[in-house]
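Run log, item B.
One chain of 330 residues. Sequence copied directly from the ordering sheet:
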Amino acid sequence: MRGVKGSVQASNVMPESECYSIRRLSPFQGVLQVVKTPNARALSVDGRRWQVQVRCEIRRPRWGGSPQNVTIYRRYVAFALWSIRDGLTRLPIDPTLDRAHLEEVSERLLVRLLVAAEKLPLLRRDSVELWLLDAKDRLPLALLGSAMEGRPLAKFRWLEWVPSPAGDRSFVARSQRAEGLHADPTAIADHREMVANLVHKAAGRPRSAQWFRREEDGGGLGLEVPEQSAEGARWCGKRLPKSAFPELPLRERWTDAAERQLVADFHHWQAPFLLTLSELSEGTRKRLEHAARDRAMTVRALHRLYPAVINREVINAALVEASLRRSAGQ
């Protein structure tokens, strides 16, 4: 059992489990790998390092109550970090928790995790999608969220599309840089805002959004509408064809050439994350592989989760560059 520090044995009976991936939204940051057994789960954003969480019974005394007057609830607690190379590294935990129970449950999870970690990426299961709609044709414009079939749909306080995590100012539009715009380093964040403003302008005010259940042929059946949506159930119970949905989480087709180029620049920057998607056409994946060369370190972090590679030489070149940069301490 390579990489496990403990008493997990290969002969253990495999517990009931789930192994799947879901997209990381919003903003889009690739896919999250999930391995679950009863009362435990392991999560990974890169397929290499996993956080092991155990579902525990937490007891909290009520204010002014007796020791028997407590509130009991269940939640996941981060118990350890795991990787094939380093094995299990336990984290500090609340001393009132039952450590023997945590150890037992986590060991059962590790049996399944060892198998799943060799079969990445895991099958994506978040087939229900929330799309921000274009104000003109009310068709999908940008992906806001996703959910698994049969699971509760997330509640959104605002229908806002976010291009990158808060504080991440690394996106610099190539077309803007080439034209010498925003040469002031303090204005780099403007490029991120430019994309967000473009999307929100197309969505109009007040904004509309719709949940869809995506089907095997790429089409989607309209489900419910978020409470904040400006328009009623326009697509509820109706089916949209595959052509109505953008291939990427943000629509590539724009009327204005400058807008198309700005979005193309954004997708170029996002390429290492977009390559984790399983539905890409061969042409799109090939284009994104070449774009990802500009972010070799991110490719190195995520390449285990790429479901397909069209041009292996391009990805290998990025991995070699990343290794050299890492060796040089960059």
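Observations after the first pass:
- Confidence is low (pLDDT under 50) at residues 1-15, 178-183, 185-189.
- The radius of gyration is 23 Å.
Flagged for discussion on Thursday.
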